[in-house]
Amino acid sequence: MSSNQLLRLDERANGVKKLFSENTERMLKLAPRHGTDPNRLLSIAFTSIAYDAKLVACTPQSIIGGVFESLKLGLMLGGPSQEAWLIPFGTEATLVIGFQGYRNILDRGRGVIDVHPRTVYAGDDFDVSFGTPRDRITHRPYWLTGRPKGSLVAVYAMANLRGGGQQIEVMPKAEVDAHRDRSRAKNSGPWVNDYDAMALKTVIRKIAKYLPKSNELLSRALDLDDKADRGVPQDFEIAGFSVPQDGPRKPALDALAEHVAGAIDITPEESKALDAEIATRDNQ
User: Fold this and answer.
1) In 3-state terms, what secondary structure has residue 250?
2) Which of 33, 151, 218, 240 is the most buried (most CB within 10 A)?
C-alpha cells in the first residue's frame, strides 16, 4: 500500500477514527462480555465503516450507536461472518442483523441447544410433514441427488430446545420475498448482495418468535431488526458518549486506534506519520 493510498484512506476514515478513539473506553466499560474479544469487534467495525464512503457520511450519533448496539449484542459488525451490518439510509446508519448473528445469540441463550437454518434448491429432494405426532423434514441436497442446483425454492430452520422437543419453521421463497418487499432495505445492502443469507435470517426471525423468550439479547435484536425494516428510529443508547457536532478536531488516539491502524495494514511508523500529518492540518 503506497503512502498516497494511506493518506487517501486516512482522509476518509479520520473522523470515524476520532469517534472511535474518544468513545472506546466507555463502550468497553459498558458492554457485556460474550466470550468474544470486544477490542477485536471494535477493530473490525472500524475497518468496515472506514472503507464505506456512504457510512462515513452518516451522522456520528447513528454510527457510534450502531457500533455500541452490536457490541452489546456480542456481534461482529462487518467482516466475513455476516453477523451484522451498518446500512446507510440517507445520513443515518441503521443496524441490520444477519442470520449468523441470530444463530450466535440463540446459541448463547438458555432456551435453545442449537438452531440450524437451511436453504432448499430446485435440485434438492425435500419433504415436510406437519400435524403429525412429530413434525418431520426430509432433505437431500442437490449435490447428493446429482441434479443441477437450480434456484432457491424455500428455507427452513430447526431448533432443538433445552427442555426437550424441536421447533420447525419452513418458508417458501414467495413468503421470503413478501417479507423482503415490506423492508425499506429491499433494494440495497444484503438483500441485493446476499439474498440467500437474508432468506435464512428471515426464517430464523420467524422461528425465534416461538422460542423461549428468556434471552433478552434475542428480544433486543428482534426489536432493532423490526425497526430497521419499518424505517423507524432504532433508539440507540448513546447517552454519555462523545459525539462531535461539527468541524475536525485534533485526534486523541488511544491503544485501540493504534490497534485499528494495524487492522488496515498500516505499520506503527506509518500510523505515527499519518497522525502527525493530521495534527498539522488540524492546527492550520
Assistant:
1) coil
2) 218
